[in-house]
Specification:
Layout lengths: L2 H36 L2 H14 L6 H12 L6 H14 L5 H14 L2 H13 L6 H13 L3 H13 L6 H13 L3 H13 L6 H13 L3 H13 L6 H13 L3 H11 L9 H13 L3 H13 L6 H13 L3 H13 L6 H5 L2 H5 L3 H12 L7 H10 L5 H13 L6 H12 L4 H10 L5 H13 L3 H14 L5 H13 L3 H14 L5 H13 L3 H9 L10 H13 L3 H14 L6
Helix pairs in contact: 1-2, 1-3, 3-5, 5-6, 5-7, 6-7, 7-8, 7-9, 9-10, 9-11, 10-11, 11-12, 11-13, 12-13, 13-14, 13-15, 15-16, 15-17, 17-18, 22-24, 24-25, 24-26, 25-26, 26-27, 26-28, 28-29, 28-30, 30-31, 30-32, 31-32, 32-33
Pfam family, one: PPR
Family: Belongs to the PPR family. P subfamily.
InterPro entries: PPR_rpt, PROP1-like_PPR_dom, TPR-like_helical_dom_sf
Length: 583
């Protein structure tokens, strides 16, 4: 065979071998991609490593990038897998390119791993690659959304270092989050960094900072920022002025607040709105300046602004707390005349009248709210039951039907509040009947009816309740034991009372000072001062410390019995412990 023929055969063999390697390499690459998408990172990496034997110089960084991309399409990917992937690149000595980092960032942003994405971004910069505006913007939003605010600030600094200016919605989101979560100082630094870059933020970006400062009693700093921005040519809006106005009100700087309000009324750009006036009205009401609040309400209406139900609720609460019955009634008439709908806050605003004992008008007004189709919640109904616990059973049933009709599920607080009302009545049998109608009574339910039975000295009812507790698998807690001890003392069964106390000491629950004081009252009423004093002397062994009521109980009993030595001893102990007995 000639030399030329031999050379041709060699070339043909090498070509066939290369084709064979290429076929193996392509097959391994395809297999690797499929495994990455379906079977997990371990098998995909095995296929990736086999590619080194398929062809020289393989796998390349492009194969690695393909592996990353396919892994992110897998449903089983975890952070450990990503760490393994990155380590593999280092092990093979592959040099990442821009596409490597961008593929990582795209995948990490998709799965919400903002912290890892930030680390990859910093690595990208360390390798002298520039992240795109889009990738950094996406990361900034992800960090802000997931409340990784320190990371969000780092991303923002990276962006500004590259002369990327975030969009207004992104800045509003970040500064709003920083301001609302106690990071107002950092929000302010972000604002001034933007200003240094020549960025001209709108009031929607910096208003959250002013609001946050004013809410945290830092009106002087808020005012300084407000004036600084004004000097730079910024035009504030009504929200900016309202924030400042709120700050003055909160610090009770009424003169400054009034001047601020007057300035707002001179310019249509920041003319005060309903929220502004409501802020001032609330501040005046909170500080007992109701007449000024009513005067401001009148000025507000004269300027063509209609107060909403929030404004009226604030004034209504203040009038109610001051027991200004006629004014409350007149304001209700105004609410209905303006065709406003009272809400759950209107109902709770009447609590002041109820505390002052004006149940008549409060009940009339509440009745109109409840049956007028207003949107109530279970908490308001519970207050309603608590305040009017003497309802007849028909009325109670009707109100519960209204709750269910309005898709409000009565809870245990509801049932226990109603039960407390029954317990205040004359018949404990009715209370027991209602108690047994509760589907899932809790320990509060049992304590409520047990306490009432003990106070009324109804021994049969006490036994029934304790038996019911055993049947339902409930054990007496410290409240229940204290009720029993009071009952035994009241009916003269001191031995039974002491047995209960000994049971608490030996088996638990540990008595409270309410328990101890109740026991001492019972003993002293039954002329057992010596026994009460022994309990007092053993307080430390029970893990308890005497309070002013304890001394008051013992000293009163000692004086009644003429035990002057004990009175002097107790007075000495009071001085040593720095306790002042209640009169």
């Amino acid at each position: 065979m000639s030399r030329s023929s031999s050379s041709s055969v060699q070339s043909l063999d090498m070509s066939e071998e290369n084709d064979h390697h290429c076929a193996d390499y392509a097959e391994l690459r395809s297999n690797m991609q499929n495994l990455a998408k379906s079977s997990g990172i371990t098998k995909a990496l095995q296929a990736f490593r086999l590619m080194r034997t398929a062809a020289p110089g393989k796998p390349t960084i492009y194969d690695y990038n393909s592996l990353i991309n396919c892994c992110f399409k897998s449903e089983n990917l975890c952070l450990h897998d990503l760490s393994t992937l990155y380590s593999e690149m280092k092990t093979l000595g592959l040099s990442p390119n821009a596409s490597t980092f961008n593929t990582f960032l795209k995948g990490l942003n998709l799965i919400g791993e903002s912290k890892v994405a930030l680390w990859v971004t910093i690595e990208m910069c360390n390798h002298a690659f520039t992240p795109s505006f889009t990738s950094l913007s996406t990361l900034l939003k992800k960090c802000s959304d997931s409340m990784e605010l320190e990371d969000a600030i780092t991303v923002l600094e990276l962006m500004m270092g590259l002369n990327y200016i975030p969009t207004e919605p992104q800045m509003i989101l970040l500064i709003n989050r920083l301001s609302k979560h106690g990071m107002t100082e950092k929000a302010t630094l972000v604002l001034y960094k933007l200003l240094d870059k020549g960025y001209f933020p709108s009031p929607y970006i910096y208003n959250p900072i002013i609001w946050s400062l004013c809410k945290s009693d830092q009106i002087s700093i808020a005012l300084a920022i407000f004036c600084s921005l004004e000097k730079k040519g910024f035009v504030h809006n009504v929200c900016s002025y309202t924030a400042l106005f709120y700050g003055f009100c909160k610090k009770k700087l009424f003169k400054e607040a009034s001047n601020c309000l007057n300035k707002m009324t001179t310019n249509s750009r920041f003319y005060p709105n309903v929220r502004t006036y409501t802020t001032f009205i609330k501040c005046l009401c909170d500080n007992g300046r109701i007449q000024e609040a009513l005067s401001l309400l009148g000025r507000m209406e004269k300027r063509g602004l209609d107060p909403d139900i929030v404004t009226y609720n604030i004034i209504l609460r203040a009038l109610s707390n001051q027991n200004m019955v006629h004014e409350v009634f007149d304001l209700f008439q105004t609410i209905y005349q303006k065709e406003l709908s009272p809400d759950r806050y209107t109902a709770t605003a009447l609590s002041g009248l109820l505390k002052k004992g004006n149940l008549g008008i409060a009940r009339t007004l509440l009745h109109d709210i409840f049956y007028g189709g207003s949107d109530m919640d279970v908490a308001v109904y519970n207050v309603y039951y608590c305040l009017f616990s003497g309802f007849k059973s028909k009325e109670l049933s009707y109100v519960i039907e209204c709750m269910i009709k309005n898709d409000i599920e009565p809870n245990n607080i509801t049932f226990n509040t109603i039960l407390k009302g029954f317990c205040k009545g004359k018949s404990m049998d009715e209370a027991l009947e209602y108690f047994q109608s509760i589907k899932k009574p809790d320990l509060v339910s049992f304590n409520t009816i047990l306490s009432a039975s003990c106070k009324k000295g109804d021994s049969k009812m006490v036994e029934k309740v304790i038996d019911l507790m055993k049947d339902e698998g409930f054990k007496l807690n410290v409240v229940g034991f204290t009720c029993l001890m009071q009952y035994y003392c009241n009916v003269g069964k001191l031995n039974d009372c002491l047995d209960v106390f000994e049971c608490m000491i030996s088996q638990g629950p540990r008595p409270s000072m309410v328990t101890i004081n109740s026991l001492m009252i019972g003993l002293c009423k039954n002329w057992e001062l010596e026994a009460a004093y022994r309990v007092f002397c053993n307080l430390e062994s029970y893990g308890l410390s005497s309070d002013s009521n304890t001394y008051k109980i013992l000293m009163r009993a000692a004086k009644i019995e003429g035990n002057d030595l004990l009175v002097e001893e107790l007075q000495r102990k009071c001085r040593e412990e720095g306790v002042k007995p209640n009169n």
